[in-house]
């Protein structure tokens, strides 16, 4: 469940504190946090200073909202997100997107680190998401009986906007990459998956696997926000690589490709802003 009044309170606080009115937002996943350094005239809001926001416990992430220009386009950037594995509910994980919606955001780019399931993928590849699978938890909107954010029952068939995906693929090719479109499987974590779970997810049609993004995308879909998802394949998923899967590997790959990831996101922002 996502608290409408609380998200409204957070959004009003932010809108009162700045004259900037971004319509595009980015959620920065592992490794991409540095993108905020490239923003101009950025105003920074520590999550803990925003009424209604919670503190992120994940040390990989910073926990602040930035509003400023990226390549000349006014954006809001969320550095730090709430994960289910940290003990937050699915609704908590979706909460920042509810705030963005109340701030007037119309387009959202969601980024993450993920394990590669599709054998055609390589470590360090940037995959454009076309859909997701989430079987193992409730919806972030479970319990929102009055459906204050949008339709109570809503379509998810273009939750990963076809229009934005085309733009992302063009931008990716312009940067010399060969983009894949893939299906993201959401898993609760914090443990990485077992090899048997990965084999099962492959049968179900998943191409990458991760522990974030999906609650945010569901929230955005209900709010009618056009959304693009991009995964950085930081590792091959459990059972697909000979080496043991570690957090260090995930961080190392995310750091290795962060400039390329940032370049892609900047180019897409320029095109859609
Ligand atoms: N599984 C789940 N989440 C992840 C992975 C993975 O292999 N890599 C990065 N985030």
The low-confidence parts are none
Please outline the major beta sheet. Answer: 5 strands, mixed, barrel
Mean pLDDT: 94
Strands in their spatial order, largest beta sheet:
5-8-7-6-9
Order of helices and strands: HEEEEHEEHEHEHEHH
State the separation between the terminal residues, measured CA to CA. Answer: 31 Å
How helix-rich are the residues, as a percent range?
Answer: 25-40%
Shape: globular
Which percent band covers the strand fraction? Answer: 15-25%
Rg from alpha-carbon coordinates: 17 Å
| Number of strand elements | 9
Structural class, from secondary structure content?
A: alpha/beta
Give an overview in words.
- The chain is of the alpha/beta class and 273 residues long.
- Helices cover 31% and strands 24% of the residues.
- Helix 1 packs across helix 2, helix 2 (90-102) packs parallel to helix 5 (214-223) and helix 3 (162-174) packs across helix 7.
- It is globular.
- The relative contact order is 0.21.
- A 5-stranded mixed beta barrel has the order 5-8-7-6-9, surrounded by 4 helices.
- Strand 7, helix 4 and strand 8 (208-210) form a beta-alpha-beta unit.
- The chain has helices at 4-17, 90-102, 162-174, 195-204, 214-223, 247-256, 258-272; strands at residues 24-28, 40-46, 64-70, 73-79, 107-116, 126-133, 180-186, 208-210, 226-236.
- It binds hypoxanthine.
- Hypoxanthine binds next to strand 5, strand 8 and strand 9.
Tags for this entry?
binds hypoxanthine; 273 residues; 31% helix; 7 helices; alpha/beta
What's the helix and strand layout?
Layout: H1 4-17, E1 24-28, E2 40-46, E3 64-70, E4 73-79, H2 90-102, E5 107-116, E6 126-133, H3 162-174, E7 180-186, H4 195-204, E8 208-210, H5 214-223, E9 226-236, H6 247-256, H7 258-272
Parallel strand pairs: 1-4, 1-5, 5-9, 6-7, 7-8
Antiparallel strand pairs: 2-3, 3-4, 5-8, 6-9
Residues 113-115, 187, 192-193, 209-211, 234-235, 237, 250 line the site of hypoxanthine.
């Amino acid at each position: 469940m996502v608290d409408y009044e609380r998200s409204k309170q957070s959004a009003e606080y932010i809108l009162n504190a700045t004259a900037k009115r971004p319509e595009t937002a980015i959620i920065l996943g592992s490794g991409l946090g540095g993108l905020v350094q490239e923003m101009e005239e950025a105003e920074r809001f520590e999550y803990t200073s925003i009424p209604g926001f919670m503190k992120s416990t994940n040390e990989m992430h910073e926990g602040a909202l930035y509003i400023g220009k990226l390549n000349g386009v006014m954006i809001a950037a969320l550095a730090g997100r709430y994960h289910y594995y940290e003990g937050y509910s699915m609704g908590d994980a979706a909460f920042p997107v509810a705030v963005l919606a109340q701030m007037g955001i119309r387009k959202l780019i969601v980024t993450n680190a993920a394990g590669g399931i599709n054998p055609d993928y390589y470590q360090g590849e940037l995959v454009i998401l076309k859909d997701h699978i989430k079987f193992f938890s409730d919806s972030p909107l479970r319990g929102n009986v009055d459906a204050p954010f949008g339709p109570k029952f809503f379509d998810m068939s273009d939750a990963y906007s076809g229009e934005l995906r085309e733009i992302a693929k063009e931008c990716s090719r312009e940067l010399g990459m060969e983009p894949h479109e893939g299906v993201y499987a959401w898993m609760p974590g914090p443990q990485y998956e077992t090899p048997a779970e990965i084999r099962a997810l492959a049968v179900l049609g998943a191409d990458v696997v991760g522990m974030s993004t999906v609650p945010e995308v569901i929230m955005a879909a209900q709010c009618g926000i056009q959304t693009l998802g991009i995964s950085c394949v930081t590792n091959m998923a459990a059972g697909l690589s000979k080496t043991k899967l570690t957090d260090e590997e995930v961080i190392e790959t995310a750091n290795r490709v962060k400039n390329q990831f940032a370049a892609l996101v900047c180019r897409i922002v320029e095109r859609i802003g």
